Each structure stands twice: as C-alpha cells, then as structure tokens.
C-alpha cells in the first residue's frame, strides 16, 4: 500500500485529540454526538487517502476506518481543502458545491461538520 506520507492535516488531527479531552471538546461531544469519517488525499480525491475517524460520541480521533457500524457522515477532500475548511478559510457548503468535498451519509450530520469543531490553530 502506498504511504500517504505526512499530510499537513496530521498535525491538526493530533491537536484534535487533545482538544476533545478539554472542556471545550467535552461540550462538543455533548452538543454534536456524531461520528465522522474523513478521507484525506494528498493531492487528488480517491488516491493515497489517509482515513481518520472523528468520533464525537466517544470523544476520540483515530486513524483508519470506523469499525462500530457506519459513520454518520463520510467526507473526502484533499489535504489543502480540508485544512482550509477546518481553519474556517473555506465555507464547507461552498466547498461542496465546487466539488472540493464529497459527502456520503446523513446530510443533517454533514451540516454539523463546521470549523467550530476543530481546535483553533495556535499562533506561532
């Protein structure tokens, strides 16, 4: 299997793990309570994707497919587009209309997938 090497998103996913254990993260879990599977491709959708599960029921982020049934929504995007969406630089609805995101699953669940669920990047 091809190594998807380092994605810029990997750092954000590590921060997300810490964020979910914080008070703000615990509020998210109570408020959203959904499971998202993210397919993040280095350059082109569908190729060398790295898969993450953001479980806002249990409050965890894991690499690999979701194993407890079906996720509430599955997203596919490139590494750059994912970061733009997660940091609030790109509106998720506009990204979807432009074809920058592919979504499977519940549209209601997908609409709750906003930049607010991600930790704010720390300023260096």
From TrEMBL:
Residues 18-114 form the SCP2 domain. Gene3D superfamilies: SCP2 sterol-binding domain. InterPro entries: SCP2_sterol-bd_dom, SCP2_sterol-bd_dom_sf. It comes from the Eukaryota. SUPFAM superfamilies: SCP-like. One of its GO terms (cellular component) is cytosol. Pfam families: SCP2. This is SCP2 domain-containing protein. It comes from Cuscuta australis. The lineage of its organism: Eukaryota, Viridiplantae, Streptophyta, Embryophyta, Tracheophyta.
């Amino acid at each position: 299997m091809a190594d998807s090497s380092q994605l810029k998103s990997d750092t954000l996913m590590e921060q997300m793990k810490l964020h979910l254990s914080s008070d703000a993260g615990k509020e998210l879990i109570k408020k959203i309570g959904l499971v998202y599977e993210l397919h993040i491709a280095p350059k082109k959708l569908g190729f060398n994707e790295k898969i993450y599960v953001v479980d806002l029921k249990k409050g965890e982020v894991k690499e690999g497919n979701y194993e407890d049934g079906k996720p509430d929504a599955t997203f596919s995007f490139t590494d750059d587009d994912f970061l733009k969406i997660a940091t609030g630089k790109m509106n998720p609805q506009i990204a979807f209309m432009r074809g920058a995101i592919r979504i499977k699953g519940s549209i209601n669940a997908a609409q709750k997938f906003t930049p607010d669920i991600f930790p704010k990047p720390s300023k260096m």
